[in-house]
């Protein structure tokens, strides 16, 4: 699956089952380590619990979000639940914890090994391994429901096919660039359909002169997944709060931040309050500028609505700086941006990117590249960059394998224009920066 991108449902399920069998066998072997096992050998044996799951877990998570067949996405969700259940069971296994804690530091324990050992013990305790049986059982049930509920929430967003029907067709799209009109032709009755995909959203909110159209679109955009996701969101909050409380934390924020650089939720709040304090004067000045721009058309206006922000920013730039973002788009065809991102990374890091044609992927638009340094293969990555029905709607990097059993792999998932034949797919400047940002995660 890692090297060939195979996505058949049976193949995916078989690989997960095989990985789980290997992990369980490794757990049994770890529990039976002889008492005189050296510290480093003991850690290596412990690592074998997760090594078989590394690559398969990444592929399951990716395909649940991007595979074009709904049946495969559903299967991947089920496999993800099974993998998470296995992880939870391992994290609550008192015998595994006891064996790990019993490892005796010796001359083979360098700083990295010690850190790995201490963090692993910490993670077991945070999972609730040292609590009574009833509490551990409840923790397991909560974690299983969290996975299932989160999947339902994400699926409702990805598979929500709502949009806006524009009865007046192109006549109501004044301000939109010519390439947008070409890729959204009028239908036989003169109307057209605008999806909620990012390649539609960005230019529409920035350039459409019809304020009512932007408002209607914005409302539909922010109602995706409704009303089903409202109840799911409440349930996710309830589950997280109960789980955190069972494990001895005052809130989910307190639980999550304990292992981050910030260490505690209070520090996060103080940081955010400080950012707000520092940013407020600048934000107030910019808001005043945008409100003044709006009042050129509406003298009595007293506020700026979210669906007006991008449009007013663009109009103010054109009027005060003689800068039109629609002109810049001509330089940002998808292929040009992709090649520029790769060339920049190659120059900065002294590496080479090679397109691989023979690797099977889950969709014809997906591209595969290998990262080379002095003819040595350092990794492989996939670019799934254009929107389609049922696909993840934002931009993210999916880790497909850390390189424990072969070259590391990752996938960049975005929703940029450029998938329609004959069209260059012109990106907004914001989308170009998103490409660089997510590619940095991938590297």
Descriptive account of the structure:
The protein has helices at residues 9-31, 39-47, 51-66, 70-91, 94-101, 111-127, 133-158, 178-183, 198-207, 211-221, 228-246, 252-257, 265-295, 306-321, 325-328, 334-349, 429-442; strands spanning 163-166, 192-195, 352-356, 367-373, 376-384, 396-401, 409-413. With 443 residues, it is an alpha+beta fold. It has a five-stranded mixed β-sheet. Helix 13 crosses helix 14. Residues 1-7 have low confidence and may be disordered.
Summarize this entry quickly.
The chain is α+β, with helices and mostly antiparallel strands and 443 residues long. The protein is built from 17 helices and seven strands. The strands form two sheets. A five-stranded mixed β-sheet has the order 3-4-5-7-6.
Category from helices, strands and their pairing: alpha+beta
**How confident is the prediction overall: mean pLDDT?**
95
Cα-to-Cα separation, first versus last residue: 21 Å
In DSSP terms, counting alpha (H) and pi (I) runs of 4 or more, how many helices? 17
Gyration radius from CA atoms, angstroms: 26 Å
Q: Extract low-pLDDT stretches.
A: 1-7
Shape annotation: globular
Helix content: 55-70%
Give me the side-by-side strand order of the main sheet. Answer: 3-4-5-7-6
Please report which band the strand proportion falls in: under 5%, 5-15%, 15-25%, 25-35%, 35-45% or over 45%: 5-15%
Q: What's the main sheet like?
A: 5 strands, mixed
Tally of strands: 7
N-to-C SSE string, H for helix and E for strand: HHHHHHHEHEHHHHHHHHEEEEEH
């Amino acid at each position: 699956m890692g090297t060939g991108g195979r996505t058949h449902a049976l193949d995916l399920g078989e690989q997960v089952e095989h990985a789980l069998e290997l992990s369980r066998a490794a757990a049994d072997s770890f529990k039976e380590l002889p008492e005189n096992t050296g510290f480093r050998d003991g850690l290596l044996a412990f690592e074998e619990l997760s090594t078989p799951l590394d690559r398969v877990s990444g592929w399951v998570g990716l395909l649940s979000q991007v595979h074009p067949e709904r049946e495969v996405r559903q299967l991947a969700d089920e496999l993800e639940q099974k993998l998470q259940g296995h992880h939870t069971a391992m994290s609550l296994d008192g015998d595994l914890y006891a064996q790990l804690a019993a490892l005796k530091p010796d001359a083979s324990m360098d700083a990295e090994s010690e850190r790995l050992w201490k963090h692993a013990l910490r993670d077991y305790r945070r999972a609730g391994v040292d609590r009574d049986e009833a509490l551990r059982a409840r923790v397991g049930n909560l974690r299983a429901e969290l996975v299932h509920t989160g999947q339902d929430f994400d699926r409702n967003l990805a598979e929500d096919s709502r949009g806006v029907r524009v009865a007046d067709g192109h006549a109501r799209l004044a301000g939109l660039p010519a390439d947008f009109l070409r890729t959204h032709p009028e239908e036989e009755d003169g109307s057209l359909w605008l999806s909620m995909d990012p390649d539609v959203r960005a230019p529409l909110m920035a350039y459409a002169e019809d304020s009512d159209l932007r408002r209607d679109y914005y409302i539909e955009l922010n109602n995706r997944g409704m009303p089903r996701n409202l109840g799911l969101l409440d349930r996710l909050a309830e589950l997280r709060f109960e789980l955190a409380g069972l494990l001895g934390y005052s809130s989910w924020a307190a639980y999550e931040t304990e292992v981050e650089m910030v260490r505690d939720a209070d520090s996060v709040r103080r940081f955010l309050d400080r950012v707000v304090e520092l940013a407020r004067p600048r934000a107030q000045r910019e808001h005043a500028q945008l409100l003044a721009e709006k009042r050129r058309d509406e003298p009595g206006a007293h506020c700026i609505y979210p669906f007006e922000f991008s449009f007013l920013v663009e109009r103010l730039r054109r009027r005060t700086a003689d800068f039109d973002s629609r002109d810049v788009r001509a330089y940002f065809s998808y292929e040009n941006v992709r090649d520029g991102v790769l060339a920049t990374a190659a120059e900065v890091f002294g590496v080479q990117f090679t397109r691989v044609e023979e690797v099977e992927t889950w969709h014809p638009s997906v591209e595969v590249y290998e990262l080379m340094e002095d003819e040595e293969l350092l990794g492989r990555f996939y670019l799934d960059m254009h929107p389609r029905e049922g696909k993840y709607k934002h931009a993210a990097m999916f880790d497909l394998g850390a390189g424990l059993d072969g070259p590391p792999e990752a996938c960049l998932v975005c929703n940029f224009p450029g998938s329609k034949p004959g069209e260059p797919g012109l990106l907004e400047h914001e989308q170009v920066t998103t490409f660089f940002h997510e590619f940095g995660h991938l590297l």
